[in-house]
Amino acid sequence: MAVFVANESGATDVDEVLLTALARFVLDAMKVSPLAELSVLLVEEKAMTDLHVRYMGEEGPTDVLSFAQDEAFDASWSESGDDDPTLLLGDVVLCPSVAHRQAEQAGHAFERELHLLCTHGILHLLGFDHAEPDEEREMWKIQNRLLSAWDTAVKATPTRPATTAGEATRGGTSTVDGPADAAGASGAAGGTSDAGEGTGAAGGTGETGPADER
Question: Does residue 173 surpass a pLDDT of 90?
């Protein structure tokens, strides 16, 4: 499993290695194929505003956007991957400056907010949504479960979890390959969303952009 994190936001307080580990943890917990690839891009507000207007038709910056690629995530890792050696899940785009404001409003750490948004964006790539009340309940339940399991893993690890032999970090980009240990949660639905519900984040939009547009 490969996760690529690129920080183009100018933010200096983002732990790209830990964010990579969080993304890898979520993908493994959701039983995504170990052959999958995910990109996480951190951008400044202007870039996020441009994406928000272009793909969602809404003004102003948002906190997270997800752009799906393949449909290969529907099968579990044990059942998929033989026919397609590379499964491109897509891109999760995060805006640290928006995450900072939301973390302050929610009364929790910036890193917590960023991990929440990244988890939320990945769930969108896996087909989750909250357009309907039952979908919303299911998405928040899984999101909260994943974040709780991640918190437990972090606390149980003497040093910051994540950095295994496959990791490399250079030029603001962090890459981790290989499966990770994680608590299980699985399922799929479809959609667009509000990242804050049930976790304390305020004002999140957590939207999903068109999968076939760049």
Answer: no
Say what angle helices 110-125 and 96-106 make with each other, to 10 degrees. 120
DSSP state of 213: -
**Neighbouring residues of 97: CB distance < 8 A, sequence distance ≥ 6:** 9, 11, 44, 45, 61
Confidence (pLDDT) at 130: 85
CA distance 83 to 73: 13
Neighbouring CB atoms inside 10 A of 174's CB total: 26
Rounded to an integer, what distance in angstroms lies between the CA atom of residue 146 and that of residue 120? 10
**What is the rounded CA–CA span in Å between residue 144 and residue 125?**
17
Buried b (16+ CB within 10 A) or exposed e, 130-164: beeeebbebbbebbbebbebbeebbeeeeeebbbe
pLDDT-derived band of residue 203, with 50, 70 and 90 as boundaries?
Answer: very low
Instruction: Report yes or no on whether pTM surpasses 0.85.
Output: no
pLDDT of residue 125 exceeding 90, the answer is yes
Task: State both tokens at 63.
Answer: 């906190």
Does the pLDDT value for residue 211 go beyond 70? no
Phi then psi for residue 89, to 5 deg, are -70, -40
Q: Is 117 helix (H, G, I), strand (E, B) or coil?
A: helix
